[in-house]
Amino acid sequence: MSRPFELDPLFRALTVLPGVGPRNAKLLEKLVGGPKVLDLLWHLPIDFVDRRFAPTIKDAPDGKVATLTVTVGKHIPNQRKGQPYKVWCTDETGTINLVFFHAHKDYLEKQLPLNETVIVSGRIEYYQGNPQMTHPDAIGPEKDRASIETVEPVYPLTQGVTNKVVRKSIKAALGFVQELPEWLDSAYKERQKWPDWHKAAEEIHNPPGEEALDAHHPARARLAYDELLANQLTLAIVRQKQRQINGRSFQSGHDLRKKVLEVLPFQLTGAQERSLQEIDKDMAEPARMLRLLQGDVGSGKTIVACLAMLNAIENGAQAAIMAPTEILARQHAESLKPWLDAAGIRFVTLTGRDKGKTRETLLQQIHNGAAQIIIGTHAIFQEGVEFDDLGMAVIDEQHRFGVHQRLELSSKGKGVDILVMTATPIPRTLALSAYGDMDISRLDEKPPGRKPIDTRLIPIEKIDPMIEGLRRQIETGARIYWVCPLVEESEKLDLAAAEERYDILKRLFGAKGEERVGLIHGRMKPTEKDEAMRKFAGGETDILVATTVIEVGVNVPEATIMVIEHAERFGLSQLHQLRGRVGRSGDQSYCFLVYSGPLGETAKERLSIMRETEDGFLIAEKDLQLRGSGDILGVRQSGMAEFKLANLSVHGELLAAARDDARLIIDRDPELKGPRSEALRTLLYLFERDQAIQNLRSG
Ligand code: ADP
Ligand code: MG
């Protein structure tokens, strides 16, 4: 089946719409973000003007939009250029001037014929005690009353496109909408009191009242749900397809695991145990594992990944762990080393930096199976790397690993079990929209013995006493991260700010400052970054001044103080991620949020949330509320779905329902052949999920 013919009109170019020429089509395309009739249809109003208010002239209040029925009394053309052209009108209660700048006399005389009754709609303003209406939004003869006295949608606009043009085009686009087969579960639809799709599309642009702006209005909610269902259905199909590739059954590796647990200086937390059990169960099943391990920085994901990889090793397969950056790959190697050594496991580290002979040797070890665990960057999945028998892959994603990459990776090994780790405590709703194809384990419990981080808000004026305090802390062995702000998204300025702070701190710490203060930023070579990180981790430097590049996962437990300058410029998730770099040992840690006022409402709220809680999941939920889904740190990079009709900060419940619906549909009818299937396929085409349908077909 290809795209159903009912949808064809919606997929045509905007120029097919009456009144839309190539020039307008270009402008509209820019405005709505796509060249199709459908893209225009999804351009939703942000406000409504109620033109049903039809008072007499006397009762039309200043500043309000009104629709008046008046008789044209006199045309008063402007005497000079720059003066307005006025048309004097009356009704039985009073008089009003219609005011036009840059008027065309002929046109106005046709629109407003002398002594005729006309309908005019627009904003009333009082000028020197008299009512007037400048450039009415609508003018028409009495017979047009019904089409003027409406609730008129107001659309987001761009330069060169007026609301009138958008309205007219959308009106035309609505003419292309046809009745579609119903893909919703009928009981659910009835319970929600939702309209049919074509009615919802119509209503959202031509609402009976202003309440249609509400995200929970039936028409809006229905269209949002449709979009979410298409998203979740796609993920359910991907999931099903991925699980179909013969997985392997790996029984939990008790011997190796025991050896590692014996050398572990701590007990696993309840959350770690639970997650591991979930992973073991997945791996033991013949279906492939597709699991997301979600845990805040410092929640102890690494050991969980390590123990999970042992399952594959014990069954004679290889395992790989991929980090987003060089530094993190090396850090993983360092953390894993004592554990792997204890279990007698051979591992190699491969990154893009390994060249020539070294690389050859590593590749050989990976190919012939000498290497049981491969640690590295994305280099390990690049061309030329062949595994002997890869059974499991751990991806430490740090927001950079979307659904496409997940699919790509699956093509590398046969039925490789996949564990994705993310340090972003993504709110449930967002996790569903981006990872609905995966199962989720949450590390929602910090390893014990960590003291809460003492978080303080410091106005920039008080930075000197704070630095004095830091100096004393350093004398007792403290190590400090000092993060410098984002300056207008410009890396160059960022750097300048960081370098300036670096110089100041060096001077403040006197003769020894030269050695005691380090600097790390995005423009440094990887080797230089490593060097700066290494010095800080090893205690050669006490302060590390950084732009936001410092890697999220870098673990320096001895660092107990985090200073964030211009904290008001950072997002909540970002602040949380940064703060998570301290508080990793038993010692008391501090976070100083240095801000410069005056603070806006949102900034104030962000900072006070930071002071109140360290719960990443709670912070993420707040962040979602404060900023809307699109802005959550890293959401864009991760290829997380962006929605046109749904808004995850308000439609979270619909998303959960869509997920359940989608999984049920695919569980019952994996190839989408049943009774609802044709309608569901139409839905997928409507939301341009053609890829998902391809997957169905080849599956
Ligand atoms: P994440 O990768 O989730 O940010 P890590 O795996 O790097 O966190 O763990 C952070 C620190 O906590 C490491 O030093 C690790 O050894 C330690 N750790 C992990 N689990 C526990 C535990 N159950 N009890 C005590 N310390 C732990
Ligand atoms: Mg980590």
What does it look like?
The protein is an alpha/beta fold and 699 residues long. It folds into 4 domains: 5-48 and 156-213, no CATH class; 52-149, Beta Barrel (OB fold (Dihydrolipoamide Acetyltransferase, E2P)); 255-443, P-loop containing nucleotide triphosphate hydrolases (Rossmann fold); 454-613, P-loop containing nucleotide triphosphate hydrolases (Rossmann fold). Helices cover 40% and strands 17% of the residues. The strands form 4 sheets. The chain has a 7-stranded mixed β-sheet with strand order 6-7-4-3-2-5-8. Strand 14 (390-396), helix 14 (403-410) and strand 15 form a beta-alpha-beta unit. The longest helix is centred in the N-terminal third of the chain and has 27 residues, at 218-244. The chain is globular, with a radius of gyration of 32 Å. It starts with 21 loop residues before the first helix and ends with a helix. Magnesium ion binds next to helix 11.
Cα-based radius of gyration, to the nearest Å: 32 Å
* CATH level 1 class label of the largest domain: Alpha Beta
| Total count of strands | 22
Gap between N and C termini? 15 Å
* Lateral strand order in the biggest sheet: 6-7-4-3-2-5-8
| Mean pLDDT score | 87
> Helix fraction?
40-55%
CATH homologous superfamily placement of the largest domain: P-loop containing nucleotide triphosphate hydrolases
Q: Indicate how many domains the architecture comprises.
A: 4
- General shape: globular
